[in-house]
Structures are given as structure tokens and as C-alpha cells.
Amino acid sequence: MEKKILIVEDELDIQELMSFYLKKEDFEIETSSNGNQALEKIRKGNFDLIILDIMLPGKSGLEVLKEVRYKLENKVPIIIASARSEDSDIITGLELGADEYLTKPFSPAVLTAKVKAMIRYRQKESSKDKNEIKTKNSLSFNVERHTCFYKQTEINLTATEFSLLLLLVKEEGRVFTREQLINSVKGNDYPVTQRAIDVQIASIRKKLGELGKNLKTVWSVGYKYQEGINEI
Asked: Which tens digits make up the pLDDT trace of 6-20?
């Protein structure tokens, strides 16, 4: 079955270029040139991935991202593709729930590799054991549905955040370097920075609330998940 991708980009030459290369890889492509139209398509459609510009007519890309993650509670993977390359822009995009941030100008081949790797990873996750995974502190995961609950409350994680936390919880106590986290969650062929991992971990901690203390930094090494022995 073809995977369906929404490209949200107001510069038609860039939109057409991305569409051309992704169609060559047999992806089904829909496009949108402004934020309001993109949200309507997202509400009505069932996309496997979204490529999102920030500077758009109508609602900005960040406004679209925020509404998709926090109002629609849609966990579809989102790659931001933007000319805005300041650290603050990248951090804001990732903290709002983007799974990756690609700065323009970029190679169509790199974009295609990112899309294929993210789609491939989601397919791999879907084929894994679908049984619910629980921790002693009432944190539970459903791999098939990509949901995470603490007691009876759902934690609204992005696709990348979910995968990182699930990996750390399943290997509780094991210390992962940033490079190991990148390779385990995205695959060795997925280009992503170590800084992006730090931003994702910080976001997970915030969303976990009182359990955030269990996601520990091992200085000069990486991260681990470790629940307290006497915690309930």
C-alpha cells in the first residue's frame, strides 16, 4: 500500500521538487500552500507523514504544528523543512512536537532518505510485539497504538519521543549514548543531530511530570531510565 505524505510549502518550485522526488519513490503526495488549508487536509485525511514549512500564509507552520499535536492530538510524524536555521527556531520546532528539522537549502536526496527512514521505522514498530508494556510505577505503553499512559492519563508524546522513551524503559537501567539512541530509534542511515536528542529528552521529562526524574542524565555519557526502588 502506498504511503501518503502531505507537503505543506508555499513556494511552488520547492513544493514541486519535493513532490517529484517523493513520487519517484512511490509515495502518494498531497500538497498545501497555506496553514489553514493544511489543517483542513489533516483533519480530513489520514497521512503517514507531513513535511511542514514554517513561514506560510495564514497560520504559520508552528501554529499548524501546535494544533496538530495539542488540539487534534495527532501523532503523525512531522518533518519541518524551513529556511529558518537559528538554534532557537530548531529547538522551538522540536519542543512543539516535530520529529525532525531540516534546514533549507537541502538536497532532495537527503529529504527522501529522512522520509523513507521514518516510514520504515514506523512500519518496523507496528510489526513488533503488540502487547502492552508496563513499569512498576504505572507507566504503560501500547506499541500498536503508539500510546503511553501514566495511571489513567495519556501522555501526549510525538512519534520520536514515544520511541525514545519506550526504548529506555524496555532497557531500564542501561545507559545509552546519544549516538546509540539515534541509531536504535532512527536507524544508522537516519541523519539527525545529537542536539535533537537532548531536546527530545528534555521534552519527554517535562511531559512525564513527576516521573520525569526517572529519565536520568549520565554526564559525559548519555541517558538512562531508572525507577526508584521504593516508589509506588
From this structure: 999 999 999 999 999
Backbone angles phi, psi at 46, to 5 degrees: -125, 90
Cβ neighbours for 13, distance < 8 A, ≥ 6 positions apart: none
Beta carbons of 223 and 201 less than 8 angstroms apart: yes
pLDDT in tens, 38-84: 999 999 988 999 999 999 999 999 999 999 998 888 889 999 999 99
CA 225/CA 124 separation, integer angstroms: 23
CA distance 212 to 225: 9
All domains of the chain in start order, with CATH: 4-125 (3.40.50.2300), 129-225 (1.10.10.10)
How many whole angstroms separate alpha carbon 90 and alpha carbon 80? 9
Q: How far apart are CA 91 and CA 195, in angstroms?
A: 9
Residue 39 and residue 73 in contact, taking contact as beta carbons nearer than 8 Å:
no
| CA torsion angle 148 137 124 61 (round to 10) | 40
Q: For the beta carbon of residue 180, count every other beta carbon within 10 angstroms.
A: 16
Please, which residues bridge with residue 81 across strands?
102
What pTM did the predictor assign? 0.65
Contact 200, 164 (CB under 8 A): yes
Whether 187 and 177 have beta carbons less than 8 Å apart is answered as: no
